[in-house]
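Memo to structure team: turn this sequence into structure tokens by end of day. - J.P.
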Amino acid sequence: MSETRARVRNCIYDNPGIHFNAVGRKLDIATGQTQYHLRKLTRAEKVTKEGVYGRTHYFPPTFSEWERGVIALLRRETSREIVLLLLRAAPLPPAEIADRLDLARSTVEWHLSRLVEYEIAEKRTRANELVITLTEDEEIYRLLREIEPRLVDRVVDRFSRFADDLLDG
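Reply from structure team:
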């Protein structure tokens, strides 16, 4: 394995769920070089890729499909904030999540629907009220420790919030 390919693999192992562009930026290598080495690593099953809502994330092959989905969603700042709140205070109704995080209800609903789809959270009825709970608290907590949201993820999420606020206002 070439030195560059080993660096790409190590970058992914050190940053599970990292995006394609972040690999190139982090290692300061050209886009074509990044594509080439990621394709080789993927074909050799040294890394796994997962497309989640328009972003391709790369993982060590040891992560399950569920873990890959969780990590990919937790790399989004808003999803991560919602999960952290639910770890502390679940069950909560969506409106209260929006209020506590000072987010537009539509933003919270978008992220909640993805968290439910990936079986990270579930909707339940409590006293005739819809509430959200997490499915696997311990596993989610473990995966949260595996990642750190990237600056680019935070910028994209903050822009989305800004656009939502403009549309809701």
